[in-house]
Amino acid sequence: MLIGLGGVEDAVVFDLFAGSGSFGLESLSRGAKHATFVESDRNALKTLEANIKSLGFGDRTTILSVPVERAIHTIGHGDVAFCDPPYRLDVWQTLLDGVDADLLVGHAERPVELTDRWVEERRRKYGRAKIVIASRAGLFAADESAEDLVDEGSDDTSVDLAVDAPLDPSIETGDAD
């Protein structure tokens, strides 16, 4: 669904509410330049650190163990931000107002209502999960869109990126979701 994910090559990626880090790690494996993981749950951090170490991506990652709502104001600009807050949290307004990225991938239980800062590129539903892909308003000329970033033919080839699953089944995620 997202860029056939080949398009993350050389991208700076944010994995917000990272859990096991599946989105950021998958992006790194597909050529992303750097991934910043933001996760404040201690158990999830242990899993995330183990996954980064086992895959050898330590030199291309930053881990911030602070609340996402604080981190988004300090991490700078990214190419792609993956936002997967626990369903019980109502933080979408804060995320949409504060995330500085060209492309946002949102994973939520309820449809995400985008603000004027974002242009919807695609929405999908997978069971309870609602996925929205949005580009930053003004990023593309009026006759362009993020279509080259979004794989039209995909039904769910990148759903694995939208679900925090452990990369190694022997490692528990410890996710608070």
Question: What layout of secondary structure does this protein have?
Answer:
Layout lengths: L11 E5 L5 H8 L4 E5 L3 H14 L5 E4 L3 H4 L6 E6 L8 H7 L2 E8 L9 E9 L2 E8 L22 H4 L15
Number of helices: 5
State the CATH class: Alpha Beta
Kindly report the average pLDDT value. Answer: 82
What is the quaternary state of this protein?
A: single chain
Q: Strand tally, please? A: 7
Low-confidence stretches: 151-177
Say what the CATH topology is: Rossmann fold
What's the domain count? 1
Strands in their spatial order, largest beta sheet:
3-2-1-4-5-7-6
The CATH homologous superfamily corresponds to Vaccinia Virus protein VP39
* Order of secondary-structure elements: EHEHEHEHEEEH
Give a written overview of the molecule.
The structure is a single chain. The chain has 177 residues and is of the alpha/beta class. It has one domain: 3-Layer(aba) Sandwich (Rossmann fold). 21% of the residues lie in helices and 25% in strands. It has a seven-stranded mixed beta sheet with strand order 3-2-1-4-5-7-6, covered by helices on one side. Strand 6 (118-126) and strand 7 (129-136) form a beta hairpin. The radius of gyration is 15 Å and the shape is globular.
What is this entry, summarized?
The protein has helices spanning 22-29, 42-55, 68-71, 92-98, 159-162, and strands spanning 12-16, 34-38, 61-64, 78-83, 101-108, 118-126, 129-136. The protein is built from five helices and seven strands; from the N terminus they run βαβαβαβαβββα.
